[in-house]
Amino acid sequence: MEQQLETNNDPKNNKVFKGILIGGVVGGALVMMNRSARKKVKSKAVSLKDSSTRLVTEVKNHPGEVKDQLINQFKSASDTLKDAILDAQKLYQRVNEDISSQFVAMKDASSQAVSSVKNAKGDITKISSKVKDAQSELTENPIEHNPSSTKDQDKLEYYGTDAGTAYPRKEPEPVTSTTTPHK
Q1: How far apart are CA 163 and CA 96, in angstroms?
Q2: Which intervals of the chain are annotated as region Disordered (predicted)?
């Protein structure tokens, strides 16, 4: 398959090209109205003319040397570019390894943290059970559930006997007043 370039015979393409050309000329003319812009354009044009004249003269006088010099410049630029690519690859590998190792370390640390939380949960459950036991011990009636209360009964003083029966000594009951004091 052969591709052929179309010529600019299309009237639309010609109009676009003419518009670009006219716009460039008008823009260039407006820039030339500024004195500093004219000086810059003039100095750049002279510099370009001088360097191109030197290049043409050098190519005419020493074509082989210019060719060799250009080849060496391209080889040098190519080698520099290859070094930059290798350095970029090494950097990518180093960063990738660093990130991977840090990810593994974070994963291990998170696993250890989860394990610690699970162990703490078991310990907290044990502590909670002990606290509940202590609470129930504090809320129990000491007389009804105290195993030493029977021993205390043995320590009660007895007095009097009626036909061989002893009665425990009663503590006097506190006196409570139902009347309110006068002011």
Answers
A1: 102
A2: 125-183
